[in-house]
Structure formats: C-alpha cells, structure tokens
Amino acid sequence: RGWDPDIGLALFDVSGEALMPFTLTDPRAMPSGSYVGGVTLTTEGEPAVAPGYFVAVEEEPEGAAGDLIVSMNMPESAALAAVVNLDGALLGVAHATPDGPRVISSMSMLRLIERLQEEEVCRGLEVSDLAEAVRERFVIERGVLIEYVHAPAFHPEPSLRGGDILLEWGEEDVTSAEQFRELYDATTPGELVRYRVLRNRRRIAGGTLVPDADCLPVDQGPVRFASSGMAFEWVRPAADDPGGAGRWVVTAVRNGGPAEQAGVRERDWLLSIEGVTTDVEDDRAALEAAAGRTEPMLLSLRRGERVKLAVVQPVEPPPPPADIEVER
Which of 66, 140, 171, 176 is positioned for an S-S bond with 60, CB 3.0–4.6 A? Predict the structure, then answer.
C-alpha cells in the first residue's frame, strides 16, 4: 500500500490468517524512568524480551510526538523490536539504521500509516508551468508544458505528446499546472475531453477518453441502435496479439427487429456505415450519430472470411407491454 524510504516503513494489506493486534498508547503520558521492554525474535524464531527504561519523547514541530529515547540492551541479532509498557501496549518500534538503533513512537507510526494510506490520484498527463520567457518566445499568454504522457492509460492512445504545450482542456483555457490538475480531477473517468495543443508552432485539436484514478483505461460500453434493434462494441486485440487490430463488433441483435430482418448477426464485424469506414475506436462518435438516424443505413459487415452488405431501416422500438410500468 505504501513505502517510506526514510525509515524503511512499508505498509501491506494482510489477509488470511488472523493476527493479534497491538494496543497502542501515547508515550508522552509515561513518566521518565518507567519500565519498558523490547519484544523481538531470536535467530531461532523464539520470542525474547529485553528490559529497559523509558527516558523521553523527542518533540517534532507543532508539538507532535517524535522518536523515543529509551535505555535498553537489545540483542545484536535483533533488527526490529516492539517497545511496550508493562501492560503490553505498544509505545514504539525499534529498528536498526546505518546510524544506529532508532525507536519510532507509536504516534509517529500512526501519522505515517495515515499518510501512506492516503489515496493518490494517478493522472495520465504530467505537466509543468511555462517560464515567462518561453511564453514570450511562443507568443502565448496561457498553456502548460506536457512533460510526460502515460500512453497505456489511454485507449485509443491520444495524439498528445511530451513536449506539447497544452492550451485548452475540456473547452477551458489552461493557465497553470495546478489549474490543469483541478480540471483533470474534475472530469469523469471515461469522459471524452477535447483539448488543444501547440506543437511546432501549429495548433492541433483533438479528444481523448479520461482514464480512471489508477491510470487504467475506461471502457465506454456498447453503442446501442435502439430503433434498428442492434448494438456495437469496440473489441480490442487479444493480449497475446499486440500487433492485432481492434474492431467494432455486433454484440446484440433484437429478435424480429430491423437489423435481424436485414441479415445482421451477432459477432459480425462492422466495416463501414454508409460508406464511412469504422476501423478505430475514435469512430464511436460517428456510430453514436448514426444511431439516431431514421433513414435506411447501408452496413458493410464481415462474417468469417466473407463480406456482407445489409440495408437496415430503423423503426420506432415496440412499446412495452401494458402491464409493465415504465419509469419516467
């Protein structure tokens, strides 16, 4: 779940075997000179307790509890130990460092764990602000530099590139890196966002589907032709065929509907609609526009090794049975 390189603390999700938790206590409430113990394991895996004394808690800025100061002789083989009071409550964790033993207080541990558990949003684009001299050079008043594009986060891959100057995102002018991050985080995963960039002194417009918070692409689902009784969905190439091509595939055909009457079958590949080729995922907009047509549509389909032509006449879908309520 998280990793702090400064103290070597890693946070894991543990499942399966039930574990007995420690009770934590704030060491700042303990009087100096109180008895404590360092609980550890020997090289043979046997539990061992090293007795000692509590001295003090180092204070951090704003009064937060820092490291513990204790007096105890830990076994040389012990790289890690739980420091507890006489009731067995956890005061801190002792561990070996290149500079000698260190004892992190239980309160510091809690703060670290809370910080490591904070969910960090992954963004498919990393940007930075432009220096004023760069703006003057390109004669622009707004924009940020795209430093990195996480290509696997986008399907299809956007035409955005590292080195582009991002001018607009979601029809909003981009004025700073912080403002762009706010715009990016406000979009819904799977949403189509229009953008405008400056590349080699040329302004280029495009659109992309926003990935989710884990930088994974979001599938938009099928395009439904309700009045034609069919649906198409973009199918990506198989994982073991990275060089393969995706395609729009018929995923549903309504019994007795216009598409079935025209000869459309499930698992047909869509090659074109009204002579317009549909061979990339970005053709979704064209399919969505065609889904609202009322005129006959000429479809070019592939079924196995053969090509089929079908003319589909959209009609109003049949009304639901009278005994079924329709939510409005």
Answer: 66
pTM: 0.41
- Per residue, what are the HEC states of 231-282? EEEEECCCCCCCCCCCEEEEEEECCCCHHHHCCCCCCCEEEEECCEECCCHH
Q: Distance between CA 328 and CA 325 in Å, rounded? A: 9
Q: Are 156 and 105 within one domain?
A: no
CA distance 185 to 122: 10
Question: What domain count does the chain have?
Answer: 3
Q: What is the pLDDT of residues 68-96, one digit of tens each?
A: 888 888 766 667 888 999 988 888 888 87
Q: What is the distance between the alpha carbons of residues 162 and 71, in angstroms, rounded to a whole number?
A: 55
Scanning the structure block, which residue is given the tokens 């009770």?
23
The CA–CA distances, whole Å, from 102 to 83, 91, 232, 284 equal 11, 13, 61, 59
Regarding whether 204 and 227 lie in a shared domain, the answer is no
Rounded mean pLDDT, 125-131 = 93
Tell me what pLDDT residue 320 has: 46
CB 143 within 8 A of CB 137: no
Residue 91 in any domain: the answer is yes
Copy the structure tokens of residue 64: 């937060």
Rounded CA separation 90/68 (Å): 12
CATH number at residue 231: 2.30.42.10
Burial code of 138-167, b = ≥16 C-beta within 10 A, e = fewer?
A: eeeeebbbbeebeeebbbeebebeeebbbb
Same domain, 152 and 231: no
